[in-house]
C-alpha cells in the first residue's frame, strides 16, 4: 500500500490487489516506528496521521525476574517523532489507502487473490487473480510481491528461500486494560517464560512466547492451565486472565526468519516479509518493509513512468535493501540464541547478563537499541516531486 502511494505520487499507474474484503484483521505488527513517522512527515501526512487514535511509547523496558531493566530510550533520537506509535494496522492501511486514492493513477481492488503468475518468454508480465466474478488476468510492467512471510507471489515465482530458523512461536491474545493499570508496554523474562504486553487504548495486546513446536502440548493441558500460566505473569489481579474463555481467543503466530537469495526476476520484485521474513524481536518487521517500499519507489518510479524498466533496476532495490535486512536478521538471530532460547529452556542466570547490567546503569547506552529499533539500518527518505493529487 505504501509503495502504491509512492508510485502513484510519482505519476505511475498502480493497482493494489488485496484478497480480503477489508483490512479488519489482527495483523500483530502494529508498531509504527520513528523511521516510518519520518516518512509520513516527508509526505506531508504526519499531522493527519497522528490525529488518529494511537498510543506513544518513549521508553522500552523489560522485567527480568524481579528486576526492571530500561532497554531503549527513544526520546534522544534525531527524528521529529521521538516515540514508537501503536496503532491497529487496519487503521494505518485505511489511512494510506485514502491518501493514495487522491492520485488519479492509484487503484485498489479488494477481494482479489493472486493465484498465479503470467509469463512470456521467461518474463513475468502479470498475475492471475480470483475475484467474486471469477478468474481474471491482469497484465503489468512490474509485479511486486508484498504479501508477507507466506507469500504466494514468491512461491509461484520459484525464488530460493534461505531459512535462518527461530526457536519460538507466539500465542497472541487480548486482556482488558483498566485505568489503574500501568501505562508502559513491557516484556517479562524468567522462570522459563517470556511474556509481552503492549498497551492499547482499552486493552492489552499480549504475546505469550512458547518454544517452537510445543503448541500441541500446551493445548493438551487445557485452556484452564494456560489461563493459570497467564495469571502468574500479568501485573494486575489474576482474575482478569479469565477473559481468555477458550482457544478461539488465542491465535498462534508461527515465527520464521528467512530471506530470498534473489528478490527479483524479470518483471517481478519481492519486498518486505516476502523478501525477508523477520522475527518479532524488536517489532521492526513492518518498518523494515516500509523502508523497502520507499527505496523501491525511489529507484523504480522513473524507469516505470518512462517505460524503460529492466532487471538491473530491480537488482538495485535488492542491493540497496539487502544489507539492512541481513544486519537486522543477524541481530534478531543472536537475540533468539542468546536470550530467548535459554529462557524458554528454563535456564536461570545467577545475575543479569552484562549487556542488561550496562543498559540499567548507563542511560546513554539506551540510545543504541533505540536507534536500531526506532530508525534501523540505512533509513530511507522520500525523494522526487509529486504529481498533483
Characterise the protein shown here:
By secondary structure, the protein is an alpha+beta fold. It folds into two domains: 2-62 and 73-163 and 257-374, FAD/NAD(P)-binding domain, CATH 3.50.50.60; 168-211 and 213-253. 32% of the residues lie in helices and 26% in strands. The protein is built from eleven helices and 21 strands. It has helices at residues 2-9, 34-42, 46-50, 89-100, 152-157, 215-220, 223-231, 285-305, 311-344, 354-361, 367-374, and strands spanning 14-17, 31-32, 55-57, 59-64, 67-73, 84-86, 106-109, 113-120, 123-131, 134-139, 143-145, 161-163, 168-176, 186-190, 193-199, 203-211, 251-253, 258-260, 264-265, 268-270, 276-277. The strands form six sheets. The protein has a seven-stranded mixed β-sheet with strand order 5-4-14-15-16-13-17. The longest helix has 34 residues, at 311-344. The model has no long low-confidence stretch (mean pLDDT 92).
What's the quick description here?
With 389 residues, the protein is an alpha+beta fold. The chain has helices at 2-9, 34-42, 46-50, 89-100, 152-157, 215-220, 223-231, 285-305, 311-344, 354-361, 367-374; strands at 14-17, 31-32, 55-57, 59-64, 67-73, 84-86, 106-109, 113-120, 123-131, 134-139, 143-145, 161-163, 168-176, 186-190, 193-199, 203-211, 251-253, 258-260, 264-265, 268-270, 276-277.
CATH topology of the largest domain: FAD/NAD(P)-binding domain
Helix content: 25-40%
* Total domains: 2
Count of helical segments?
11
The total of beta strands comes to: 21
Shape: globular
CATH H-level superfamily title of the largest domain: FAD/NAD(P)-binding domain
Examine the secondary-structure arrangement and name the CATH architecture of the largest domain: 3-Layer(bba) Sandwich
Largest sheet: 7 strands, mixed
User: In oligomeric terms, what are we looking at?
Assistant: single chain
Rg value: 22 Å
- Structural class of the helices, strands and pairings? alpha+beta
Q: How confident is the prediction overall: mean pLDDT?
A: 92
Main-sheet strand order equals: 5-4-14-15-16-13-17
Q: Which strand-content bin applies to the residues?
A: 25-35%
Which consecutive residue ranges, at least 5 long each, have pLDDT under 50?
none
Amino acid at each position: 500500500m505504501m509503495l502504491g502511494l509512492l508510485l502513484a505520487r510519482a505519476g505511475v499507474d498502480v493497482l493494489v490487489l488485496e484478497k480480503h474484503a477489508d483490512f479488519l484483521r489482527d495483523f500483530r505488527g502494529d508498531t509504527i516506528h520513528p523511521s516510518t513517522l519520518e516518512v509520513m512527515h516527508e509526505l506531508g501526512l504526519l499531522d493527519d496521521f497522528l490525529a488518529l487514535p494511537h498510543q506513544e511509547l518513549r521508553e522500552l523496558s523489560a522485567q527480568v525476574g524481579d528486576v526492571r531493566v530500561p532497554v531503549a530510550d527513544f526520546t534522544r533520537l534525531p527524528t521529529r517523532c521521538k516515540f514508537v506509535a501503536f496503532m491497529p494496522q487496519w487503521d494505518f492501511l485505511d489511512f494510506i489507502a485514502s491518501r493514495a486514492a487522491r492520485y488519479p493513477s492509484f487503484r485498489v481492488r479488494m477481494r482479489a487473490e493472486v493465484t498465479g503468475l503470467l509469463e512470456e518468454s521467461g518474463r513475468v508480465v502479470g498475475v492471475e487473480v480470483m475475484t467474486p466474478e471469477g478468474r481474471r488476468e491482469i497484465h503489468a510492467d512490474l509485479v511486486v510481491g508484498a504479501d508477507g512471510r507466506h507469500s504466494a507471489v514468491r512461491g509461484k515465482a520459484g525464488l530460493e528461500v534461505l531459512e535462518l530458523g527461530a526457536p519460538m512461536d507466539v500465542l497472541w491474545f487480548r486482556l482488558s486494560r483498566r485505568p489503574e493499570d500501568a501505562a508502559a508496554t513491557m516484556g517479562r523474562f524468567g522462570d522459563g517464560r517470556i511474556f509481552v504486553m503492549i498497551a492499547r487504548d482499552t486493552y492489552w495486546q499480549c504475546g505469550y512466547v512458547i518454544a517452537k513446536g510445543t503448541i500441541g502440548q500446551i493445548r493438551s493441558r487445557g485452556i484452564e492451565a494456560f489461563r493459570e500460566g497467564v495469571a502468574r505473569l500479568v501485573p494486575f489481579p489474576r482474575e482478569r486472565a479469565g477473559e481468555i474463555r477458550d482457544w478461539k481467543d488465542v491465535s498462534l503466530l508461527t515465527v520464521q526468519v528467512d530471506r530470498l537469495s534473489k528478490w527479483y526476476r524479470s518483471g517481478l520484485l519481492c519486498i518486505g516479509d516476502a523478501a525477508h521474513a523477520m522475527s518479532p524481536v524488536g517489532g521492526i518487521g513492518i518498518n523494515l518493509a516500509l523502508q523497502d517500499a520507499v527505496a523501491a519507489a525511489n529507484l523504480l518510479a522513473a524507469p516505470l513512468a518512462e517505460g524503460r524498466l529492466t532487471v538491473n533496476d530491480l537488482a538495485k532495490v535488492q542491493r540497496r535493501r539487502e544489507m539492512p535486512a541481513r544486519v537486522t536478521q543477524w541481530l534478531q538471530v543472536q537475540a533468539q540464541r542468546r536470550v530467548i532460547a535459554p529462557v524458554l529452556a528454563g535456564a536461570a542466570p545467577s545475575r543479569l547478563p552484562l549487556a542488561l547490567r550496562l543498559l540499567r546503569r548507563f542511560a546513554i547506552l539506551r540510545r543504541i537499541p533505540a536507534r536500531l529499533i526506532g530508525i534501523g539500518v540505512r533509513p530511507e527518505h522520500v525523494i522526487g516531486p509529486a504529481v498533483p493529487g
